Amino acid sequence: MLILAMDCSSAACSVAVSRDSTIIGRDFSLMTRGHATALPPMISRVLADCGLGARDMDAFAVSVGPGSFTGLRVAMAAAKGLAVAADRPLIGVSCFDAVARRASSENVDGTYEALLLTLASKREEVFVQARDAAGHELIADQVLRPTEIDRLVGDKLSDSARLLVAGDATEVVTEVLRAPDSHCLALVFEGSMMPPDAEDIALLAHDISTRDGIISNTYTAGLVPVYLRPPAAKKAS
Fold it and tell me: Distance between CA atoms of 64 and 53, rounded to whole angstroms?
C-alpha cells in the first residue's frame, strides 16, 4: 500500500511516502512560516524521487492537530485536494500520536510508566497530552502553561514514576518539571524533541488502514482539525 503523508502543524514542513510499513521517500524542513509556499514543491520532489505520481497512491494522510491554525489548514487543504483528484481515501492522524510513535521508537531510557506529549503552540502555552505505557489516557488533550502542566502532572503521577517527555516543547516543560519547587516528583526523562513528522504520519496511516480496512474515499468528508483553542483572529461583531 502506497501512502503520501504531509504535515505543516508546527515549525516544520514535511512530506513522506510509505510502501506498507517502509518509508521510501521523505523531505523535512524546519520553518516558522512559509508552509503554504514550501509544501507543493516538497510534495513534487518526494514523488519524483520515488518515481511515482499522486495517482499511484492508494491513500493520502495528513496531521489533524493540535497545532498551528494556519499550518493545519494548509496541509489539510493540499491533502484533500490530492485525495479528491485521485479519488483515494484521506486519513487524518493526530499530532500527539505521531510524536508518541517517534518517542517510543527512539526511547533509549528503557521502560516508562507515563509518556507526556508536548507540542509548541507559538505562544506561552503548550499543547499537552499524557498516556501510560499501554497508551491509555492519563491527561486529556489541552493547552496549558508549563507551570500548569507541572501541577497537573504532580497530581496525576505517583512519586518516582518514570516519565518520558517528548515533542518540540520538551525542553521548556522538563525545565519546569525538574525545578526545585516542582510539584512533579516523577523521574523525568527527555525523549524525542522533534515536532510531528510526515514519516510517522505515513506509518500510522498504514496501521490505521490495515486495522480499519479503508477501501473508499469517505474519510475526506469527515476530516476535522483539532485546534484545542479558538483562532486569535475573529470576525467583527
Answer: 24
Question: Is 0.70 topped by the overall pTM?
Answer: yes
Are 201 and 63 spatial neighbours (Cβ–Cβ below 8 Å)?
yes
Coil, strand or helix: which one is 228?
coil
Q: pLDDT tens digit string along 55-91?
A: 999 999 999 999 999 999 999 999 999 999 999 999 9
Strands (E) across the chain are located at 2-10, 12-19, 22-30, 59-63, 90-93, 114-120, 126-132, 137-144, 162-166, 187-190
CA angle 31, 18, 54 (to 5 degrees): 80
Three cell numbers at 183? 510539584
Question: Which distant-in-sequence residues (6+ apart) come within 8 Å of 227 by Cβ?
Answer: 65, 66, 69, 72
pLDDT tens-digit series, residues 180-210: 999 999 999 999 999 999 999 999 999 988 8
